Amino acid sequence: MKKIAIIGCTGSIGRQTLEVVRANPGRFEVVALAAGRNRAALSALAEEFHPKYTALAQDGAPMPEEAYAESDVVVVAASGFAGLCYALEAVRAGGRVALANKESLVCGGELVLAEAERCGAELIPVDSEHSAIFQALGMRRDAPFSKLILTASGGPFLHHTKKELARVTAAEALRHPTWKMGPKVTVDSATLLNKGYELIEAHHLYGAPYEKLSAIVHPESVVHSIVCFEDGAALAQLGYPDMRVPIQLALTCPERLPCAPQLNFEKLAALHFERLPEEKFPCFGLALAAGKAGGTAPTVLNAAAEVAVGAFLEGGITFPRIAETIEGALSKIPREEAESYEALAAADRRARDCARRLVGVE
Ligand code: MG
Question: How far apart are the CA of 198 and the centre of ligand 1, in A?
């Protein structure tokens, strides 16, 4: 029985991780469950899975260190910047960490990778794109390649004009064409900020310089990403969009277990690829620029985005103002070195204050 801890068990990835556990009786033992605020949901899951440890972030009760130490795999699926400290705790326990929290690598990539190396932790990506790259590299993160191409569904507004983009609503942004995800990441997919984040994550996970990274629109979300090699060969991983596949693989790899239906290639009429229209979606370029700048810049980007997306979801600002808020915060807050979690947390607070002023909620 593989012992697993799930940090962020009530969110989209956490719940799908528990679906994988349910679907494989006798394979996994849930040792620890942590949630943010949803007490009722955490209690219900604790009743079903009988974990030795539970923690609710809202109560200020941290997950004890033993919970990480006793787990074979820690799934870090908490959302937002808060996920970074769980990722660091999980990595310091020195076991396998199935990483689904994007901010851990976007904001804390340098720190998390250095700590993983120091503590001998094994980082396995859960995000579909990074899992696809991991698979195409032979389930390694250190294999050579010449280029990584991340696929993007393009989100619900891919073919909108700039004028139409100015009028889209939160409800429309939450209607993702292919993936079912939490609200923040769904809006980040609509602005293409999410794809910028994923390039930063790939940079850290695979040691890829930014000139070897690109994104391409692939509306069907069947090709989950592509690795190109020196000799002209390219390997891709394909499957129906179903997060349970990369989640389960992160728990069991290198072993593969039954999980989702096989692609039906005869019914798959066609696969399409097109250029990513960066000029219409400034969040993508802002993310890349912050990733290249490094240090605290991605943390500022992320904090401003969390505030701006929150305001957009409440109807407080328009869609284009998400990018404007991020740009404003990046231009106002100077980049510093990301030496410690505290340095990042300070940049995060400063950027949130700045972004709150920019969106007009203080
Ligand atoms: Mg993704």
Answer: 7
